[in-house]
Design goal:
single chain; 250 residues; alpha/beta; Rossmann fold; seven-stranded parallel β-sheet; binds NADPH dihydro-nicotinamide-adenine-dinucleotide phosphate; binds 2-hydroxyethylsulfonic acid
Length: 250
């Protein structure tokens, strides 16, 4: 039977690549994001019988519930929720960061994610479906300027493990995927549109690609039902760890 994935953040990066990968593998996709022109292009590319699009801001709870209520016949039985939409804004230290940016990250990465998850849980339980939450290496590895973005991803990782505990016995699988540096529009968004800064970050280091993530998501979602990947952290080979910083007397 054809399976259906609800993918947030399908207008770009991981989400768009995942929509393409899942449709190529025979699934149907509910593709969400704010940029309706990109969703229209995705539906055109992948076929209207395979893709249902929902253009709304995930932070708008009424729009979110409206999108669920308006799901057409053929897209109502959801087998996978891919909570992928999210963003980082800024790299300034906490004492200089924008409180508005912090609130936007919390509203998107945390509040919207739990709101959509809570709304779809009954349907996912009914289907013995799955949830994949896109977190980040930032959830576990602190770095200067990570502050609220990293905190929001730590929430996602811990929420995922706790969902697993609550969903015990339902057959619903829950995974958190924690990628390191990947080249998408992520850094363009984080720098408020600085293409040169984004290009510089990824130059000469072979980052993870959106296709790498899509293939990983596909693998996780299609494991035999008796297997659950709790948490998967992945990095480019050319990214690793550095030591603690030490503040010495001058
Ligand atoms: P992109 O910026 O390319 O994609 C982000 C997606 O999120 C877009 O489709 C965007 O859609 C959507 N989105 C953002 N805010 C909202 C909102 N308020 N309502 C609805 N949709 C929204 O970045 P990535 O593909 O890299 O990011 C995907 C996820 O992966 C994020 O959660 C990110 O934190 C995480 N991640 C990224 C890494 C990286 O290095 N790239 C590494 C680790 C994790 P639209 O703007 O159309 O609304
Ligand atoms: C994105 C990875 O290192 O920029 O989540 O926080 S990082």
């Amino acid at each position: 039977m054809t399976k259906t994935a609800w993918i947030t953040g399908a207008t770009s990066g991981f989400g768009r690549a995942a929509a393409q990968r899942f449709v190529a593998g025979g699934w149907k996709v509910i593709a969400c994001g704010r940029r309706s022109d990109r969703l229209d292009a995705l539906r055109e590319e992948l076929g209207a019988s395979n893709v249902h699009t929902c253009a709304f801001d995930l932070r708008d709870e009424a729009a979110l519930n409206g999108a669920i209520a308006a799901l057409p016949e053929g897209f109502r039985a959801i087998d996978l929720l891919l909570n992928n939409a999210g963003l980082a804004l800024g790299t300034a230290p906490a004492q200089q960061a924008s409180l508005d940016d912090w609130r936007t990250m919390i509203d998107t990465n945390v509040t919207a994610l739990v709101t959509l998850t809570r709304a779809l849980l009954p349907a996912l339980i009914a289907r013995r479906g799955g949830i994949i939450n896109v977190s980040s290496t930032a959830a576990r590895h602190p770095y200067p300027g990570g502050n609220v973005y990293a905190g929001s991803k730590a929430f996602v990782s811990q929420f995922s493990l706790n969902l697993r505990a609550d969903l015990h016995g339902t057959g619903v699988r829950v995974t958190t995927l924690e990628p390191g540096m990947a080249q998408t529009e992520f850094t363009l968004v984080r720098t408020h549109g600085d293409q040169a800064a984004s290009d510089k970050l990824y130059a000469g280091m072979q980052p993870i690609t959106a296709q790498d993530i899509a293939d990983t998501l596909w693998w996780i979602a299609n494991l035999p039902p008796h297997l659950n990947v709790n948490r998967l952290e992945m990095m480019p080979t050319r990214q690793s760890f550095a030591g603690f910083q030490i503040h010495r007397d001058a």
